[in-house]
Design brief:
Length: about 500
């Protein structure tokens, strides 16, 4: 069996009893699910799509997961929608965003390692067919407000050239939230034009999204991709948000919490703008983080961090950059009144599923896509179905991890190698390695990783990293200083 056939296989045993909701709701979901894609799209249910990403948000760091960080607007969306308890992404920014745009794992097109670095001249392959292209073809207006991070060195990689009617925000992965700079260079665009603006980026994104909504003709379906840079480093927030967390002693945690609340407040304004425009009832809102919160300083970003990273992915292990659950099982919700069953949705979903799911709701055609890794996750999203049986966390030259049902293999191939097997049903915190007791399952999952590795595209990051290292300036100390030091000795 090839990995392709496995991915599309429905390994779900049965619909869960969470379906036992109200009759009216069931009728709505059943009606929507049974319609053919075209019919589904032609009815009144063809929704506007508000797709909100947070950047490096910890799994535990929202009010509806029990945090003391205030997120009342997200909590309200979660209470009225589905809290997605097993929604997976890639462990880093660029790969997750690429997976969302393509419906394909980043290992297919060389983005499985690292992120597009500031000095990187590559981007998401231009022969990939992207979500905004698909939606645009069926009449959606497509807008990106926020971070792109899928290539910046050549305009052919920029959002306006990839299916977005408009773009407002930064192209790279990490900017100063007030100066909108990366490495001292402004990275802030409106469409294809560099602009200089004052303000805190999170607030500018919220204001722009609300402005676009208030000017939007509700008869035209809208895809608004709102990709916040919060709460990614550097940890910065306006004083009034910092003041809300004056009781938090650690300055990083205080600013991190302030950034999350600032983002939440903007989400509230955007939802209010939907309401004011009469679009709320016909808008699917999806919210999730692009990867887990940072637990390892290596992935914290470009600036130095005093103390421990402030994010929490509890109860999950590790965080951003890691193949353990803390890096990839992210805080997520979906909300569409009357169409998505409120409550906990425990089905397994991966961000690659979102392109086929949204395309189907929109009646969009994906014939131009290369073979998809994603499958339509509507039943898992809307009605709590079990979702996909298999998840590919990532496969790259040094590591790989896959999930098959309850079993998860994490394989570090570099010397000294390490293989771990976890039973995620019994041990979602990945505390007990069961590889020694289950050699057959280990062998089977290793075969899957190897099969994927045989087909993967070469990682684009490596050549760039090597070039950057080999072309770096000479590292010997300044000659004059060195002579002074020698005299001191
Ligand atoms: Ca991120």
């Amino acid at each position: 069996m090839t990995d392709r056939t496995e991915k599309t296989e429905d390994q779900a045993p049965s619909r869960r009893d969470v379906l036992a909701g109200s009759a009216g709701f069931l009728a709505a979901v059943a009606g929507l699910s049974l319609l053919a894609p075209g019919a589904r799209a032609q009815g009144a249910t063809r929704p506007h799509i508000l797709y909100i990403l947070a950047d490096d948000l910890g799994f535990a760091d929202v009010g509806f997961h029990g945090s003391d960080i205030k997120t009342p607007n997200l909590d309200r969306l979660a209470a009225g929608g589905a809290k997605l308890s097993q929604f997976y992404t890639q462990p880093l920014c660029t790969p997750t965003r690429a997976a969302l745009m393509t419906g394909r794992y980043p290992l297919r097109y060389g983005l499985q390692v690292g992120v597009v670095p500031s000095g990187g001249t590559y981007g998401l392959a231009t022969d990939e067919f992207l979500l905004p292209q698909a939606l645009k073809e069926v009449g959606y207006r497509t807008s990106l407000v926020g971070k792109w991070h899928l290539g910046h060195a050549d305009r052919k990689y920029w959002p306006r050239q990839r299916g977005f009617d408009s773009f407002y925000g930064p192209l790279v992965g990490e900017i100063d939230h007030f100066k909108h700079e990366a490495h001292g260079v402004t990275d802030w665009y409106r469409d294809n034009t560099l602009v200089k603006e004052e303000g805190y980026d999170t607030e500018l994104f919220g204001a722009e999204a609300a402005r676009q909504l208030s000017a939007h003709d509700p008869k035209t379906p809208l895809f608004l991709y709102l990709a916040f840079t919060a709460p990614h480093t550097p940890f910065q927030a306006p004083q009034r948000y910092l003041d809300m967390y004056a009781h938090i002693a650690d300055p990083s945690r205080r600013a991190y919490a302030a950034m999350i609340t600032a983002m939440d407040e903007q989400i509230g304004k955007v939802v209010a703008a939907l309401d004011a425009r009469g679009m709320r009832e016909n808008t699917l809102i999806v919210f999730h983080s692009d990867n887990g919160g940072t637990r390892n300083k290596m992935f914290v970003g470009e600036g130095a961090l005093a103390g421990d990273p402030p994010a929490s992915n509890a109860p999950y292990r590790d965080g951003k950059g890691s193949l353990y659950e803390g890096g990839t099982r992210v805080v997520a919700l979906a909300n569409w009144p009357g169409h998505i069953k409120p409550g906990q949705a425990n089905g397994v979903m991966h961000v690659v599923d979102m392109l086929p799911t949204l395309a189907k709701l929109a009646g969009a055609d994906l014939k131009q896509s290369k073979p998809l890794d994603g499958t339509d996750a509507w039943a898992a999203l809307a009605a709590g179905d079990p979702g996909r049986g298999e998840v590919v966390y990532n496969v790259e030259p040094t590591t790989g991890a896959v999930r098959d049902g309850k079993w998860k293999l994490v394989w570090h191939v570099l010397l000294p190698p390490k293989v771990e097997l976890f039973d995620l049903d019994a041990d979602p915190e990945e505390k007990t390695d069961l590889s020694a007791q289950n050699p057959a399952k280990v062998a089977e999952l290793k075969d899957k990783v190897v099969a994927l590795a045989r087909t993967m595209a070469p990682p684009l990051f490596f050549a760039t990293a090597l070039k950057a290292t080999l072309s770096a300036p000479l590292a010997t100390p300044d000659a004059a200083l060195y002579e002074l030091e020698m005299q001191d000795d």
